Amino acid sequence: MSDLSVLYDAPGPRAKTRNILYTVLFVVVMALVVWWVLAIMADKGQLAGEKWLPFVEDSRVWTTFILPGLLNTLKAAALAILIALPFGVLLGVGRLSDHRWVRAPAGAVVEFFRAIPVLLLMLFANQAYAQFSDIDPETRPLFAVVTGLVLYNASVIAEVVRAGVLSLPYGQTDAAKAIGMRKGQTMSYVLLPQAVTVMLPALVSQLVVIVKDTALGGAMLGFPELLSRVQSITANYGANTIAAFTVVALIFVLVNFALTSVAHRLESRARRSRKGTGAVIGEDPGSDVAVPVIPEQPTGDGAAVKKGAD
Amino acid sequence: MFDFLDLERYDLLGAFWVTVQLTVYSAIGSLIWGTVLAAMRVSPVPLMRAFGTAYVNIMRNTPLTVIIVATSLGLWQTLGVTLAGGTFDDIGFRLAVLGFVAYTATFVCESIRSGINTVPVGQAEAARALGLSFTQVLRLIVLPQAFRAVVAPLANVLIALTKNTTVAATIGVSEAALLMKEMVENESQAIFLVFAVFAFGFILLTLPTGLLLGWVSKRVAVKR
Fold first, then answer.
1. Where are the alpha helices (DSSP H) in chain B?
2. Is B61 on the interface with A (CB under 8 A)?
3. What is the rounded distance in angstroms from the CA atom of residue A161 to the CA atom of residue A154?
């Protein structure tokens, strides 16, 4: 039921008038809400031109506050995904091992770190670095943020890798065995390369989660990323809180929206591709974390696994 | 060994109780708002569809931390919205719930929409053939089946929400993460134990939710 217009008939004359009525009502309600919000903002002086103009007129807002903040956000996110990827692959492959003494610890680590809020990991890492290492207090928040993100996301990526490998038809393993490959060879030459195409959309979606979570470091650990710039801007440009939040949120939305579009494009390309199995591990639409959903094995050869399509 | 756990000084159970309350209120609110959003996104009125899509895309791509901090610094400190006033703690708590509902509802909406996708087309076609209107099709035929299919995805949303409530610490709501921050700073000789206690607390909250709702989702699933 992907085409949701199946839920209602093509509108006739009565339905058309009714739809117009609903539209008008909706516009009125929205207009009231917007007017109410603007009235409150005007009342508190947040609509005044000088609160918003710096973002257009004064390039120093961008060069001293916003862009360095955005750079820190992206730096932490990039470090986190680059470090988390190898760990995630190791844990994911570990969970698929034939040996219980590898599978069980890998599973325990993955389930443990997935069950814990990433903020707790950051707070703990921050304090641990303060006590047991001589990392410069200036850069410690970055280390803490990246550590927290790596611990959490490595376990999420492990699940994505596992789901990706499990989504491949069993014939691939059989064929690899038939030509005499060992287990390690099967994994690294046959299964993982194919799983990468399947997992790519989910990995990019996870990058969105990572970018969003860096903001926690700004709010709790004093990591100078984009969100934490709000306070510096309002301190320098006359309490323009609403304007500053709007601009910062907009930048986050744009960055994440770009990433999401890339993920969607990768997903539809993988679905169309004739080479692969057609199975794609997309983002779990309802979740904040990338999928632990393992698609069903394709039945019969060439049968594509379609998720959610009906 | 556990002498760092001075329950007179640190209200551990109280902090986790606040976490539970945040989760429950936000879950109820986002379930309602998320269902409304999902209905908008599939409705025959183009403007409502556009609004639903825009809201979901914007909210999902904004960090939760930005939303929560904005409710406190923006809504409360700047615009003076206190949601019926009260003490500092009450206002912070209600603003946090507001932020969580606004954010989590988008994930609820997307889950329900994917649940609607699992209902066979024939169901809606048959309903329309009987002459049911859009609201009747949705209310009597599609949503009851969709809800049964989305218990598992919604369980994931609920677990993510439970973990996300820690973000309320950024605006000083005295829940588990804020207490942990205080404790790792004060009890520096036992930070591993402090972390273990809080980690255990969250596992205790999320694990039964997952198991229980996983069982429920199997029970109520529509057999096809």
1. 12-41, 46-61, 64-70, 88-118, 121-129, 134-136, 143-149, 151-164, 176-186, 191-220
2. yes
3. 10
Contact status, residue A208 vs residue A260, Cβ threshold 8 Å = yes
Q: B88 in contact with A at a CB cutoff of 8 Å? A: no
Chain B residues lying within 8 Å of A251, measured CB to CB: none
Q: How many C-beta atoms lie closer than 10 Å to residue B77's C-beta? A: 12
Q: What is the mean pLDDT of residues A233-251?
A: 88
Contacts of B63 in chain A (CB under 8 A): 211-216, 227, 252
CB of A299 within 8 Å of any CB in chain B? Answer: no
ipTM metric: 0.90
Dihedral of CA B71/B72/B78/B79: which sign? positive
Domain ranges of chain B: 12-220
Q: In the prediction, which pLDDT does A126 show?
A: 93
Question: CATH assignment of B12-220, given 2.60.40.1930, 1.10.3720.10, 2.30.110.10, 3.40.50.1220?
Answer: 1.10.3720.10
Which top CATH class is A49-272? mainly alpha
Q: A181 CA to chain B: closest CA distance, Å?
A: 38
Please answer yes or no on whether B63 and A215 come within 8 Å at the CB atom.
yes
The sign of the CA dihedral B63, B68, B71, B74 is negative
What is the pLDDT, as a whole number, of residue A298?
A: 40
CB B56 within 8 A of CB A227: no
* pLDDT tens-digit map of B99-112: 999 999 999 999 99
Instruction: Write down the pTM of the prediction.
Output: 0.88
